[in-house]
Amino acid sequence: MAQVVLKDLNKKFDEVHAVKDVNLHIRDKEFMVLVGPSGCGKSTTLRMVAGLEEITSGEIHIGDRLVNDLPPKDRDIAMVFQNYALYPHMTVYDNMAFGLKMRKFPKPEIETRVKEAATLLGIQELLKRKPRQLSGGQRQRVAVGRAIVRHPQVFLFDEPLSNLDAKLRVQMRVELKRLHNRLETTAIYVTHDQVEAMTLGDRVVVMKDGLVHQVGEPMELYSKPRNKFVAGFIGSPAMNFIDTTISDASGILYAETAGLRVRVPAERAPRLAAYKGQAVTLGIRPEDLQEATGSDPQDLVFETLVEVVEPLGSEILLDTRVGNQTVVARVDPTVRTKHHQKIRLAFIPDRIHFFDNKTDEAVA
Amino acid sequence: MVIEQRWKRWVYFYIPLTVFIIGTLFPFYWMLITAIRPDAELYRSWRAATNTPFWTLHPTLAHVQDLLARTTFPRWLWNTFFIAIVSTGISLVCGLLAGYALARLRFPMAGALGTSIFVTYLVPPTLLFIPLADIIRDFHLGNTPWALILTYPTFLIPFCTWLMMGYFKTIPKELEECARIDGATRFGAMVRIIFPIAIPGILSAGIFAFTLSWNEFIYALIFLSSPERKTVPVGVVSELIRGDIYFWGQLMAGALLGSIPVALVYSFFVEYYVTGLTGSVKG
Questions:
Q1: Cβ of A99 and B180 within 8 Å?
Q2: Contact between residue A81 and residue A160 where contact means Cβ atoms under 8 Å apart
Q3: Eight-class DSSP state of A125
Q4: Alpha-carbon torsion A102, A105, A107, A108, what sign?
Q5: Chain B stretch 185-214, residues whose beta carbon is closer than 8 A to a beta carbon of chain A
Q6: N or C: chain B end with fewer CB closer than 10 Å?
Q7: Phi then psi for B50, rounded to 5 degrees?
């Protein structure tokens, strides 16, 4: 129903520059997730869209309206808060009806809409209760219900699942996604949990220190991180970063460090040629390292010492040591190894990332 | 094990509690017993063989009748009540709005303003009455209830402001943010969401303010002069002690009747009062 456009958005609190020149184009019906460590400016950005924080400079457009100076009530948005912010002195029904009452909807219309939303979320039986009589998951549903009865142009979610226990969080995550598919309303969702970001977002914005580091579809962020921060933030266990030096042996480039020597894939060589003799960071995701077989080319294989074995059932995590650096590998559950044993691991060559040590940017 | 716990309960709990309760309630008992003691017993020598200081064998309501019929006590009660209610009302309205502003709005010098409001509460009335007397005279308010209705807020407003500010700070600000997104103005969110949640705080501020004005002595003593204009605390003391004669029976009856309204107010709202002082809602 509406796109949201942020142009050169800035927010300064007295000393802190919380949001720096953020430019985003959130498309109509898109589920956009802002993710980053705490203090990265994601919540502040969302609150500026909501109208709860003043904008230091820049523009926010919702639909085709410039909303910089509109109060929150006139922006046609709904927001779900981390602590749910249910009005404790009102019943569930009144909580959900409040926004409609404020907008002077006729009573029958209010009732229809509240019932409809309650049915959608499975909370019809709770309508007469007060918030304190509800469990965490039920409160969460009421908070979502209160947002959807309004049929707003944009949903804003500020870490709505953080107060739930792990199991419920996964369940609500799926429900939110299903709800979004059904309602087809533009949504902006803030979280610090990269799993939530990846699973929910049509696109994901990775932020740090008030800056947007990368915007993209989840798999794009995963497979083509633009810099070292994004590479390390997205994915669990995190990407391995290995300090290496680029060397040249008769026209073939190698990334080398104590205990490891890996050939730079031919298609990456032209860009990396400039780094000859210099240090670069090699990044490889744990699942892109596999136990070596006889058929793996020798210049993609290295030997490591297993320090910790973490069997997870569907896979095994190996904490291994290369020289003085730790490398985590995610291998098949069929691999038999123990700690203090040596194991030979092979790189999947087209999944190797290189990062400039000075700028932290990916060397594509 | 059980026995040891029992003596511990007695030493650490029951005995101190008993001492405390006796210490607190004895003055009230003394007040009551004096009020219903006939004059003959009141003015009897301590060493008289028939002296019974802690009880009376001939209870009488003569002092109460005397107080109600032959003094202007009912008038004092009404004066006190009227002054306390109006000044509490004024102070609550100001305190609510000021407390909200200090707790929620970001404006320059907010911290300094909050502190200075509190500091005015610390200025003792024994000093403040001097300039206030000047103002009361200039406005020709002397010897009217308005002298007190307008001066009591000088200590009630800072008090209410601080109590309400503390209470508002315990209410999650997301509640009103959500209301503002839901379609309320800031003022609307304050009135529809924050005030209903703050009722325990508002009640305890109101009770406290009411009690403070009910018991106030100095301003009432200074700004009111004619007997029928006085409040209970001042009237009882100034009209029932004549020269060096203490009308003990009437004095105590007056004190007793004067403390009943406050006791009633507290007993009705005690639950709210406790939650008002200890914090508010969770989520």
A1: no
A2: yes
A3: G
A4: negative
A5: 185, 188, 193, 196-197
A6: N
A7: -90, 5
Instruction: Give CA A139 to chain center in angstroms.
Output: 24
The rounded distance, in Å, linking the Cα atoms of A263 and A252 is: 7
The reply to whether residue B283 touches residue A86, judged by beta carbons under 8 angstroms, is yes
> Which of B123, B127, B145 shows the shortest CA–CA distance to B136?
B145
Pairing assessment for the beta strands A31-35 and A203-208 based on DSSP bridges: parallel
CB contact under 8 A, B178 and A50: no
Spatial strand order in the sheet of A31-35: A77-80, A154-158, A186-191, A31-35, A203-208, A211-216
Establish if B172 touches chain A: CB-CB under 8 angstroms.
Answer: yes
- Interchain CB contact of A268 with B (< 8 Å): no
Cβ(A150)–Cβ(A73) below 8 Å: no
Find all residues with CB under 8 Å of B121, minimum gap 6, and list them: B155, B158, B159, B162
First to last CA, chain A: 37
Cβ atoms B64, B255 nearer than 8 A: no
- CA dist., res. A336 & res. A325, Å (int): 23
Q: Does B180 touch chain A (CB under 8 A)?
A: yes
Q: Which residue of chain A is at minimal alpha-carbon distance from B179?
A: A99
User: How many Å apart are CA B279 and CA A303, to the nearest integer?
Assistant: 61
DSSP string, A17-82: EEEEEEEEEEPTT-EEEEE-STTSSHHHHHHHHHTSS--SEEEEEETTEE-TTS-GGGS-EEEE-T
Helix (H, G, I), strand (E, B) or coil at A155: strand
Spell out which residues of chain B touch residue A150, defining contact as CB-CB under 8 Å. 182
Those of residues 38-97 in A touching chain B at CB distance below 8 A are: 50-52, 71-73, 75, 77-79, 81-89
Whether B166 and B104 have beta carbons less than 8 Å apart is answered as no
Q: Report the alpha-carbon distance of residue A14 to residue B157 in Å, rounded.
A: 31
Q: What's the pTM value of the predicted model, to 2 decimals?
A: 0.83
Contact A102 B196 (CB under 8 A): no
CA B258 – CA B235 distance, rounded (Å): 11
Residues of B within 8 A of A71 (CB-CB) are 180, 185
What's the token pair of residue B80? 């006190």
Local confidence pLDDT in tens for the 364 residues of chain A: 689 999 999 999 988 999 999 999 999 999 999 999 998 999 999 999 999 999 999 999 999 999 999 999 999 999 999 999 999 999 999 999 999 999 999 999 999 999 999 999 999 999 999 999 999 889 999 999 999 999 999 999 999 998 888 888 999 999 999 999 999 999 999 999 999 999 999 999 999 999 999 999 999 999 999 999 999 999 989 999 999 999 988 888 999 998 889 999 888 888 888 899 999 999 999 999 999 988 888 889 999 999 999 999 999 999 999 988 999 999 999 988 888 999 999 999 989 999 999 999 998 7
**Cβ-defined contact of B283 to A71 (cutoff 8 Å):** no
β-bridge pairing A279-284 and A289-291: unpaired
Greatest Cα pair distance, chain B, in angstroms, is 80
As a dihedral over the C-alpha atoms of residue A18, residue A19, residue A20, residue A23, rounded to 10 degrees, the angle is 170
Q: Cβ separation of B172 and A83 shorter than 8 Å?
A: yes
Instruction: Quote the crossing angle between the two packed helices B248-278 and B232-240, to the nearest 10°.
Output: 160
Tokens of B245: 């004669």
